[in-house]
Automatic annotation (TrEMBL):
Residues 93-252 form the G-protein coupled receptors family 3 profile domain. One of its GO terms (cellular component) is plasma membrane. It holds the Pfam family 7tm_3. Keywords: Membrane, Signal, Transmembrane, Transmembrane helix. GO terms for molecular function: G protein-coupled receptor activity; protein kinase activator activity. The chain crosses the membrane at residues 47-73, 85-109, 121-145, 157-177, 197-219, 231-253, 268-286. InterPro entries: GPCR_3_C, RA-inducible_GPCR3. It is found in: Membrane. CDD domains: 7tmC_RAIG3_GPRC5C. Its main location: membrane. This is G-protein coupled receptors family 3 profile domain-containing protein. The lineage of its organism: Eukaryota, Metazoa, Chordata, Craniata, Vertebrata.
Length: 396
């Protein structure tokens, strides 16, 4: 239902942006006289698609570059180990998206040997890298949604790179066979049948369908916090499938029926590149970047049970102030005599009651039970001590 509604809308957008078919012998409005005809689409004010796609692609290049820097800079702040292990795969996906925006300019300018060769090789390689990263991420999410433990980060990245390497090998062999060994004339990568270009992307389409199908089981896992990541991949691959169906139908059949077969091919591919790259940014990159530093429920529970100490400047000042107050109070308390060292009188417990009803401790009992040391207790006066005191006073 959703894909059926997206396809007519995407076709209408393609038809609205495509240029009218006309031959140009003089520079169009907005272009200089000394400018090569190869770059007319970059400045032609009468053709809406060139300037519009160029503006969107330029914005996408800057946005993807900034988001890549933000994702890499956020790595030290990622507290969830499974999310941290997937950052490397996401960085390679963003590099592939950055390459798609850059490749758009290759389709805006006119065809020559270098542009045609880079188009044929990089179109499938960059899309293959992006869809491989999505597929590897979807596979890791299936483990996380069921066991809350996924494969190691380097394993996920290795799977994505190996899947993308297959497309690199396919395109390298295909370009070598169709260009370097072309018989009956000089090597020209621009001479290519439309059906061959689409068939060369069969492996990329397989990766796209596989990523779309692998993201579904992640929505039914035991651990629900990973479902939103599966939904990001599902939305991205679903819209990508709609875009691919639209541009392939337009590239193979629509342009020919409209009578603008050679003139609308490059705009169709350029618009498809920008549209798919924007879908990557809006539906996958931005949501993943915003969720990468969010803590999981385990980390939130640990922080609530065991709050960590702050390391801010205000916290340090508070700690120093409390320590200084403790030292000052301690110094002040040292000036006062200790309660344990005060002299204790043996008659301090007497309250005027009768001796028969009041317990009268002996001197030995008081010495054993008193808190202070023995030498601090006031001794009783005796006859021997009185005689010694009078003798000493007489000698003086």
């Amino acid at each position: 239902m959703g894909a059926a509604g997206v396809l007519p809308a995407a076709t209408c957008v393609l038809l609205a942006l495509l240029p009218p078919g006309r031959a140009q012998s003089t520079p169009p409005a907005g272009c200089g006289k000394d400018l090569s005809s190869l770059y007319y689409n970059l400045c032609d004010l009468s053709a809406a698609w060139g300037i519009a796609v160029e503006a969107v692609a330029s914005l996408g290049v800057v946005t993807s570059f900034v988001l890549t820097i933000v994702l890499v800079a956020s790595l030290p702040f990622v507290q969830d180990p499974p999310k941290k292990s997937l950052v490397a795969t996401q960085v390679f996906f963003m590099l592939g998206t950055f390459g798609l925006f850059c490749l758009t300019f290759d389709f805006i300018v006119g065809p020559n040997f270098s542009t045609c060769a880079s188009r044929r090789f990089l179109f499938g390689v960059l899309f293959g890298l992006c869809f491989s990263c999505l597929l590897a991420h979807a596979v890791a999410l299936n483990f996380l949604a069921r066991r809350n433990r996924g494969p190691r980060g380097w394993v996920t990245l290795a799977v994505a790179l190996l899947l993308a390497l297959v497309e690199v090998i396919i395109n390298a062999e295909w370009l070598t066979i169709t260009v370097a060994r072309r018989e009956g004339g000089p090597a020209d990568p621009c001479v290519l049948a439309d059906a061959d270009f689409v068939l060369a992307l069969t492996y990329v389409m397989v990766l796209l369908v596989a990523a779309f199908g692998t993201a579904w089981p992640a929505l039914c896992g035991r651990y629900t916090r990973w479902r939103k990541h599966g939904a990001f991949i599902l939305a991205t691959t679903g819209l990508s499938m709609a875009i691919w169906v639209a541009w392939t139908a337009m590239y193979l059949y629509g342009n020919q029926r409209a009578g603008e077969k050679p003139g609308w091919d490059d705009p169709t591919l350029a618009i498809a590149l920008v549209a798919n790259a924007c879908a990557f940014i809006l539906l996958y990159v931005i949501p993943e970047v915003t969720h990468v530093t969010r803590r999981g429920p385990e980390q939130a529970y640990e922080d609530d049970g065991y709050p960590t100490r702050g390391v801010g400047y205000e916290t340090i000042l508070k700690e120093q102030k409390s320590q200084s107050m403790f030292v000052e109070n301690k110094a002040f308390s040292m000036d006062e005599p200790s309660f344990a060292k005060k002299p204790v009188s043996p008659y301090s417990g007497y309250n005027g009651q009768l001796l028969t009803s009041v317990y009268q401790p002996t001197e030995m009992a008081l010495m054993h039970k008193s808190e202070g040391p023995y030498d601090m207790i006031l001794p009783r006066a005796t006859a021997a001590s009185t005689a010694a005191g009078s003798a000493s006073s007489t000698l003086r």
